[in-house]
Design brief:
This protein is of the alpha+beta class. Helices cover 17% and strands 34% of the residues. A hairpin with a 2-residue loop joins β6 and β7.
Length: 290
């Protein structure tokens, strides 16, 4: 007799990858101290190697960190899967000296380590957990946004109807829409009584399979904000798919799967490697095996 499988559990929807989250930073040295040294991530060795921008690899996603007036987006919380909580806490503790005088801070919670970057942006670092985050030791698992009461379900319908993403809703005191944007990656829209104002100085980038369908719908309603080229466009407003009411501002950079950078292999180092106790053959991090 054939085995029975839950085939629907493998459905991902039209959005196939959360490519990057973009935050402007005021100082590349401080950004290196935080994203690379403290968090244990890896600067892309091939692209954006100057002082005006830095790309930082997180498994097969990235942070893009152009130099400029720093983005302060308290409405946004980026969730990372980071191997070895104790090592992370040691690196964060050591970073206090280099990041003194900034907004950098961190504290432990049951669900992870809450971290504030030097410019006030929030992150939550989780330990690997196959039940929650799949077989990832490192990942940009989610980006979470605060939205007003009554907005989450309609935001979910926008992604489900227009972008044809897979969306899960939770109810109760914490109402949220969880939009699948890749393998064990989500955009989370959490309802709050008094959410922070959104910030359009940063953006998220996604790859989608059906590139033209959402574009046509958005263009008909004047919602395309940037025509970047044959493989990319942008929109900034999430709207009610029925009434057209604006629900939340979030700059989306949308790329097709024909974009030259789709599926580009990214280098991820093993931050546990040290000069003392160095182990040959373990410089790279096998981030998809637990």
């Amino acid at each position: 007799m054939a085995a029975s499988f839950n085939r629907a559990a493998e459905d991902m929807g039209n959005i196939v990858n959360l490519g990057h989250a973009n935050f402007r930073v005021a100082d590349q040295r401080l950004a290196t101290s935080f994203y690379v040294t403290a968090l244990g991530l890896t600067r892309d060795p091939y692209m954006m190697t100057g002082n005006d921008n830095m790309w930082v690899n997180v498994a097969d996603s990235q942070f893009h960190l152009p130099t400029g007036q720093a983005t302060q987006a308290p409405v946004t919380l980026t969730g990372l899967v980071i191997p070895d909580r104790n090592d992370l806490l040691e690196r964060l503790t050591q970073a206090r000296r280099d990041l003194s005088g900034t907004l950098f801070n961190f504290h432990e919670q049951n669900d992870g380590v809450e971290v504030t970057c030097p410019w006030g942006n929030r992150l939550r670092c989780h330990e690997p957990d196959a039940d929650r985050f799949g077989k990832y030791r490192l990942n940009m698992a989610y980006v979470e946004f605060e939205v007003r009461r009554g907005a989450a379900a309609r935001i979910g319908r926008f992604y489900e109807t227009i972008l044809r993403a897979r969306v899960d809703m939770t109810s109760g005191p914490d109402v949220e829409a969880r939009v699948s944007v890749g393998e064990h990656q989500w955009l989370i829209f959490r309802e709050m009584d008094q959410p922070h104002d959104p910030c359009l100085a940063h953006h998220i980038q996604i790859y989608i399979s059906d590139f033209s369908g959402p574009y046509d719908w958005l263009r008909e309603r004047g919602l395309i904000s940037n025509e970047s080229g044959p493989h990319q466009y942008s929109f900034c407003k999430i709207v009610d798919p029925d009434s057209g009411e604006a629900l939340f501002d979030l700059d989306h950079e949308v790329r097709s799967m024909r974009h030259p950078m789709y599926g580009r292999p990214l280098i991820n180092r093993n931050p546990a490697q040290k000069i003392r106790g160095y182990t040959a053959g373990h410089d790279a991090l096998n981030w998809r095996t637990m």
